[in-house]
Amino acid sequence: MENNLFKGIEKKTGVSMKDVFELANSMQNANFKDEQTIRGLVTRVATLANKKVPKELEDKIVHTLISGNKPVDMGTISKMLNEKKK
After folding, report:
1. Which residues span the domain enclosing 6?
2. What InterPro entries would the database entry show (predicted)?
């Protein structure tokens, strides 16, 4: 059952569950006050989401996450990547 669920998610998103689990594992012990760590995570999430992140948006995401105004998780980063440029 679990395998079918994962295969369905992979088919719908185009993202392998292996990649998702690797990203989740890397986030568990990450230092979210370190700019380079957050930039690396933004890059990985963008790659998985097949999105290009302009430098301005990357800077905004990094600043927001370092400041502690939003929780640091894949959902927050993904949501920020999908925000329309204002």
Report:
1. 2-82
2. SpoVIF
* Closest to 51 (Cα-Cα) out of 79, 16, 29, 24: 79
Residue 84: phi, psi to the nearest 5? Answer: -75, 140
pTM above 0.90, yes or no: no
Domain count, the chain: 1
Closest of 78, 64, 69 to residue 23, by C-alpha: 78
pLDDT tens sequence across 15-26: 888 888 888 888
DSSP E strand stretches across the chain: none
DSSP summary character for residue 29: T
Phi, psi of 14 (to 5 degrees): 80, 10
* Whole-number Å distance between alpha carbons of 66 and 35: 7
Query: How far apart (Å, rounded) are the C-alpha atoms in residues 12 and 86?
Result: 29
- Spacing of C-alpha 51 from chain mean position: 11
